[in-house]
Amino acid sequence: MRKLITILGCCLALLALPSAASQDLYVVVNKQNPLKALTKQQLTDLFMGRSPYFPSGAAVLKLDAPGSSTLRQQFYHALVNMSLPEVNAYWARLMFSGRATPPMQVASENDMLQLISQNPNAIGYIPAGAMNEEVKVLFVISMAN
Amino acid sequence: MQITQLFRTHWLTGILLGNVCCIAPAMAATIDNVQFRGFGTLSSAYSDSDILGFRRDLTQRGKMQQWQLGTDSVLGLQADMQLSERLKATVQLVGKDRVDNGLGESVEWAYLSYEPDNHWRIRLGRVGSDLTMIGDVGNVGYAYDWVRPPVEFYGAIPFYHFDGVEVNYRSQVADGYLSTKVFFGKSDSHFVYSTSDSDFDLSPFWGAAVHFEKGGLTFKAAYLYTKLSHVGNARMGQLRDALSLYAAYPAVAETIEALKIDNATQYYTSGISYRLAQWTWLAEASLLDSQEHLLPKTMAAYTGVVRRFDHLSAFGLLGHIRTLSANYQVNPLVPEPLFSYSQAAFNSVDIRQSTASLGVRWDVASNTALKLQWDHSWVTEGKAMLWTVNDGTSTPDEQVNTVTLSVSFVF
To answer: What is the annotated signal peptide range for this record (chain A) (predicted)?
Structure first.
């Protein structure tokens, strides 16, 4: 019974996520990742194709929220003040000049957390309310506008 | 009719399209370590002059007062293979309306890329020659707001790649991101002039470029040193052969000498873009420094303003290009008809024009953008090299309107 309530509680929490638009965003990596923190510049360099690796030189698997999701829109608006069409055009420029590989878009926001939990190289972003114990926060994007 | 013509003569486009339809559902998926991506533009342009045929750049043949699909329509496929953690291979094939459309031309690039850390990158093979703001993504309509790279600035330099090596160093400078590179190799192209076509090699092809980004500011500058060689031009060959029969005349010998392209060409370009809130202002300027009479010293520049409204952007552009050296005047002692043919050859490389453009880009879906652009061009008498003209005619001052509707997508 307790398990059922926990599961229901988790489901409700996950369902509630998309509408919690005023929550901060957490940039997270796997708990096993040796990185302790990221500056905004380093985060921008990673997600805008300027750094192919973590600042330490380690390989990185960059994850992006689904294409037109509010989460993705909020992330790039806060990071570089660009709309999604501009971000898409920007990445097309980098991708088709072979200069950088864009972050991999996950199928759903739940997948983001799952992939990071399973992969020590992965980095992504989630709404603050979706934190779990497998990941740790490297950077907080404040949504207070 | 034009679509079938495009596919019939450009079989590669047909094959690529066929493959796209078959494997589209799995397109963005990773097959082992290979990622397939692609881009395309379907565009139709109409130009209202009956003397000047509009074209996007010197590799095309323009048409007069007809809707043209071939001007900007393109389909590209790219495969990226991660061979090891630091080593990647990339191949890009592009099908479009080129005069020469063999497989060699259709491979836009094919190179190995080695990135040992966050600072260094070395690329070897057929690499994009990214010297300008639009750089090597001119074929990717989705990547920029206009329907095509501004013709005054980009039309006379349609080289997107070279075969060689490029070394790039990235660093943080003054709180901004700085990328510097040097490159060396060779390139080639095929130009269509009003009186003839011309194949040529660009060898050597070397130079350096910098790229700086900080906040809303982007700055790029580049230098290129190259030499035209193996210039294969049937008409010019005939003219030289005819002239050489009279090489004993000093005037004719002088003309034969003036028709040669021996010396190096240097190209200097810089561009700046500044974004503040929903506005972007940008400008680019370049100088082609050449001592040859058939490749005159040329200056080109354009500026633009963009206002973004989330999924819509509206823009205005103003461009200008002109040759800076006066036309070579053939010695009047050269006998006819060689005098007229020679003078026509020197006149045909002259350019002076301006274009004002207004347009909108609408991102109708993620990864698809619709664009509408109107261009108004002022072309000076006798200086219409960027256009296709009827053979032998000398053009008057002309104003031309061009309307383009296009849809660009990536997948």
So the answer is: 1-21
Per-residue model confidence (pLDDT) at position B100: 63
CATH code of the domain made up of A21-141 = 3.40.190.10
> What residues does B209 pair with on adjacent strands?
B181, B222
Taking any CB pair shorter than 8 Å as contact, residues of chain A touching chain B are 41, 45, 50-53, 55, 57, 59, 67-68, 83-86, 88-90, 92-93, 95-99, 101
The interface pTM score, or ipTM, of the predicted complex is 0.81
**How far, in Å, CA of B96 to CA of B109, rounded?**
15
**Rounded Cα–Cα distance for residues B41 and B74 (Å):** 5
Preferred mutation among B122, B137, B368 to probe A, highest tally of A CBs within 10 A: B137
Chain A residue closest in CA terms to B173:
A41
Q: What are B162's strand-pairing partners?
A: B127
Is B366 a residue whose pLDDT tops 90?
Answer: no
Q: Can you tell me the distance from the alpha carbon of B89 to that of B79, in angstroms, rounded to the nearest whole number?
A: 8
Min Cα–Cα distance to chain A from B310, Å: 6
List CB contacts (< 8 A) between B111 and chain A.
98
Residue ranges of the domains in chain B? 41-70+130-410
B183: confidence class by pLDDT, cuts 50, 70, 90: very high
B265: confidence class by pLDDT, cuts 50, 70, 90: very high
On chain A, the residues whose CB falls within 8 A of the CB of B310 are 83, 85
Q: Residues B55-89: pLDDT tens digits?
A: 998 888 888 899 999 889 999 999 999 999 899 99
Q: Does any CB of chain A come closer than 8 Å to the CB of residue B37?
A: yes
Q: What is the CATH number of domain B41-70+130-410?
A: 2.40.160
Q: What is the pTM of this model?
A: 0.84
Q: Is the peptide bond before B335 cis (omega within 30 degrees of 0)?
A: no
In angstroms, the separation between the Cα of residue A17 and the nearest Cα of chain B is 23
The domain locations on chain A are: 21-141
Best of B118, B307, B410 to mutate (most A CBs within 10 Å, chain A): B118
Which of A39, A79, A99 to probe by mutation at the B interface, max B CB count within 10 Å? A99
